[in-house]
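EI: anyone free to look at a 378-residue chain?
SC: sure, send it
EI:
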Amino acid sequence: LCGLIPSIGGAAILCDADLRLVRADFIENHALEVSMVGGAVFVDEGADLLRVVNSSFVGNKVGNDKTHGSRGGALHAESVGLAADITGSLFARNLAIGARADGAAIDMDSQSGSLIVQNSTVAGNEAERFGGGIFTRSPTTIENSIIYRNSAQGSTVLEQQIWATSVPVTTQESSVQGITPVPALGVVDVEPNFVNEPMGNYRLKACSDLKDEGSNALVPLDVEDVNDANGTGETLPWDLDDTTRIVDTTVDMGAYENSMHCQGDLNEDGVVDGDDLGTLLGQWGACVGCSGDFNCDGAVDGDDIGTLLGNWGSCPGFLGGGGGGGESMMGSEGGESPITPQALAEEFGFETIEGFVAWLSTLDFETMSALLEGLFGG
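SC: here you go
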């Protein structure tokens, strides 16, 4: 029956069956009829288990009518007794639109069921009524996760992240915005310092206070065998990037383990070059949370220029075709020789990049802008 209803499940509809989503991506799906549920996925009656592992829900939307209700911008589940298990996943920039719109990322509507969110990131989602991040009518557990910068109307900061209707929410080793006072050791309200939130990069900067702050004991078993190792007795081996889940002895909070991100690639094109330097200089000065603040000290300055120049060139392992690393970048238009940090230093009479960076950090913004325009064009 539910498959015949046009206003539910923008990408997938499940009735009378369990659903396992492993390494799946749901991007910009819409359920846009009146009184809609489940912008990407809708799980209806008859399901006992919903398991989401190392998957992403980004930019999904439910609703288009301000006078009607919509629920579950990314995911809606309402089966009686349903156990929903979400692990290693990202929910970002999902929307629930309408006067009675709830649960922009996750809408769990099973009073006799349960919801657990582990090693996941729920950020930047928006509901027009309750639960910008999570709306739940089920007992809920949050572990090793980041629930941050979700928005909704008519609620406290915490309720914008997680709206629970008379059910307990247990939080462990997680960062949840507005959770004050903290309910347990290891639970914090700490700015995540995502690598580049405006560009949709929800990995953690190397300086994030949430690195190495999860609990290895809470990393779940790999029950869906995400790495095809023919075994489910090990703990989850991969993060959302399919890279090692635990680095530096302790797991990070959130969906990603900070391991090989190319610091300095501010426009996410796979190379660190003059465009990125221009972006960094445009953020110069006090700039809390800015993408160019690589060391998380609340300012974009000479230290950050040093980091950018130190990563100059193609980003290793970039999926868009970069790779190889090294100092030089892809070169200027017209076949000109590529610009390198060392060449820039020598151009201005410095023998070392460190000396060049120190000099740059003394310049005011206008002088640096003029310098940049002369080197790389307007």
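EI: The chain has a mean pLDDT of 83.
SC: 👍
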